[in-house]
Write a structure and sequence with these properties.
The relative contact order is 0.15. The radius of gyration is 21 Å and the shape is globular. The two termini are 30 Å apart. By secondary structure, the chain is mainly alpha-helical. The protein contains 15 helices and no strands. Helix 5 runs parallel beside helix 14.
Length: 363
């Protein structure tokens, strides 16, 4: 548990357990969201169903999911001991390539197998192999961060650059090169056709930069209690206004075409208010409950990449084999149950994998 009795140096380097809880909530929400968005679409009229809206929009977008992951990654960049530009770039390359391995294992190999057996390849086979994912963006963000660190830029400078990039993205129209590969390349940085972009760099890097800036502040502060009290008040006020306006004006009302992935700077500020409100609340929760009693969530945070990878592989199998091959449609209660089971199974497998790696390293 984080204690006020820690020395200044210990506080500076201590693990931020409130950040672990934020990441754990994010992965739980995301794992429930993905079965809804992938298995739910087999239900006729899913677009207007409340359960689809709950899983896809509320749990999958608003409740500290991808934006919280990227904010947390930014904080982690400040706290990591492997903080050289080269280390960031190498880690980014690994994450980026891991995204394509995941593409192959969750949908690509099934599309390829179907094409080989039937002699007809589905039109979305390129998307199955090359589709953008949060892992690709995270990898790209780490590579760029390494380059900016190489240029000796501080966190405040990186945040300013990210803010400018976010503002610029609003004025860039949707780009269509006329072919999938061209759109895939462009889609790394700006919005293009719907099947070739997702977490684009110009729109989303601001979350990483905000995390780095916050990480620098929290690491230097001598009174985390005072900082989090003020942050809780301010972020909650912003969050209430943002959510109220969202109910009045529609989901993602500050984004172009109300698209979550086409994130504007103003919408990002609203999303960050949710993240910071929950982060502050978790900080004070840990004052009452020691981190040892929340170990399962701390472990989930530490294994977050493995859990993300594992749950997608299982879900890809269920969607491709059970839903597409055998034409089985799950009811909404069953879909949510699948999400809950995925959380438990993915966390369990990831934990076993982590223990195995630690054992192998100790030999």
């Amino acid at each position: 548990m984080i204690s006020n009795n820690l020395t200044a140096e210990a506080q500076k380097n201590s693990r931020r357990f409130e950040l672990d809880l934020l990441k754990a909530l994010a992965i739980i929400s995301m794992i429930i969201c993905h079965p809804v968005s992938r298995l739910g679409i087999h239900n006729p009229g899913y677009e207007n169903n409340f359960f689809f809206f709950l899983g896809d929009d509320i749990l999958g977008c608003y409740l500290c999911v991808a934006h919280a992951f990227m904010f947390a990654m930014g904080v982690g960049i400040v706290y990591t001991r492997k903080n050289t530009p080269k280390a960031f770039i190498l880690r980014g390359v690994k994450l980026y390539l891991l995204g394509y391995l995941l593409n192959f294992l969750r949908y690509g190999m099934y599309n390829l197998a179907q094409g080989i057996f039937t002699g007809e390849f589905r039109s979305d086979i390129l998307k199955a192999f090359l589709g953008m994912d949060i892992l690709h963006f995270a990898g790209l963000a780490l590579i760029v961060t390494g380059i900016l660190k190489k240029l000796k830029l501080r966190e405040v400078h990186i945040l300013a650059i990210a803010g400018v990039l976010s503002l610029i993205s609003v004025f860039i129209p949707v780009i269509d090169t006329g072919n999938y590969i061209g759109n895939w390349l462009v889609g790394h940085f700006v919005s293009t056709t719907s099947d070739t972009w997702c977490f684009v760099f110009l729109n989303w890097y601001v979350f990483v930069a905000a995390g780095m800036f916050f990480g620098k502040i929290i690491r230097r502060t001598e009174s985390p209690d005072r900082l989090y009290k003020r942050l809780l008040i301010v972020s909650c006020c912003v969050m209430v206004v943002y959510i109220t306006l969202t109910f009045c004006l529609g989901t993602f009302f500050l984004c172009q075409n109300h698209n979550y992935y086409d994130m504007s700077l103003a919408e990002a500020a609203g999303m960050l208010s949710i993240d910071l409100s929950l982060l502050s609340a978790f900080y004070f929760l840990l004052k009452r409950f020691p981190a040892t009693k929340l170990r399962v969530f701390i472990d989930m945070s530490r294994n977050i990449t493995s859990i993300y990878f594992i749950h997608w592989c299982i879900l890809g199998f269920v969607d491709s084999i059970v839903c597409y091959l055998f034409d089985i449609v799950f009811s909404w209660p069953v879909i949510y149950l699948i999400g809950a089971v995925l959380i438990v199974v993915s966390a369990w497998i990831a934990n076993l994998w982590a223990k195995r790696k630690r054992f192998a390293k100790a030999q």
